[in-house]
Amino acid sequence: MNNPYRLLALTTLLLNPCLFSQQTASAQKSAETSTIRFENIIDKLSIHFKYEASATSQKYLPETMGSGVALFDYDNDGRLDIFVVNGAHIEDPMPKGAMPVKDSPKYWNRLFHQRKDGTFEDVTEKAGLAGIGYGMGVAVGDYDNDGYDDLYVTAFGGNRLYHNNGNGTFTDVTESARVGGSGWSTSAAFFDYDNDGNLDLVVARYMDWSFDKNIYCGEKREGYRQYCKPDLFNGASLILYHNDGHGHFTEVTEKAGLGSTEGRGLGIAIADFDRDGNIDLFVANDSSRQSLYRNKGDGTFEDVSIQTGVAVDGEGKTYAGMGVDFADYDNDGWPDLVITNLANRNKTAS
Predict the structure, then answer these.
(1) pLDDT band at 32 (very low <50, low <70, confident <90, very high)
(2) What is the pLDDT of residue 343?
(3) pLDDT of res. 12
(4) By the number of CB atoms within 10 A of the CB, which of 79, 109, 182, 311 ranks highest?
(5) Buried b vs exposed e over 116-129: b needs ≥16 C-beta within 10 Å?
(6) Any idea what DSSP says for residue 142?
(7) Cα angle vertex 82, ends 78, 86, to 5°?
(8) CB under 8 Å to 62, separation ≥6 — which residues?
(9) This prediction's pTM
(10) Residues 282 and 269 sit within 8 Å (Cβ to Cβ)
(11) What CA–CA distance (Å, rounded) separates 65 from 60?
């Protein structure tokens, strides 16, 4: 798992809405007699990115992780742009108390702006989005309601909130917004949990791990060290930030009932699963039971994963939850769940 991940393929149907609309009519006519095919056009689009895993002989757990990608129209020109999260430099071994750094452009996060012809240009440096820390995930949302989507990027080594200035640049407002977080953050999501018209922010954290806590796993002889299993480390709670509507957030994790450290969060999905008008929260946990938090509508949540049947698999066992999404796959009006997992044991819940 320590091989660098690559951004492999994108399709014109996904990224170019103009081309999509032009092709829709002819595609519908031939849908019954043709097979849908996808073509890898990454080179044609001028998107050049390599995920840097920064592998070491110490088998540090962040090296095993991939990273997040966001498709969003950051400049409101009607075309989707691409933001990709990248790793960081890790020394072998890491000095005590040190943190991974993006000390070279090869470790930068990347923002690719889509041109009118469907190709992309790297505007990372101009936009101010090179980032810090060992990147993990990204969330998109207009937290200040100014009409431009902002970015929240999670990382081991510090999360960052980037305010979209509306002129092609972003400003790091993490400190003033008070959303830096702590520990090993993974996924995040903007959602209005209290229905006040302002997007709040929830952040998943993986486990209580650091370079100083990197225990030895595997045979104790040269060249046989292995990555440790996640269940050897304690879990970590979510972080919930309430948006006050003036550019500031307040952490309300414990107050909202989300302070449990039982899980090892990797993926987050939001939906009103019980259709009561309040957005609920699902967290995919690695080597822990899964968590479905019902929004009670009074600023608090309750974990209903056990009674709803989504906490464990059909045999009552925990599994390695990785990613998750809500979608109404059977068009019955109710959001369903798909949870990705290791070892070909993906889970679907209706």
Answers:
(1) low
(2) 72
(3) 39
(4) 109
(5) eebebebbbeebbb
(6) -
(7) 165
(8) 87, 90, 100, 134, 156, 184
(9) 0.89
(10) yes
(11) 10
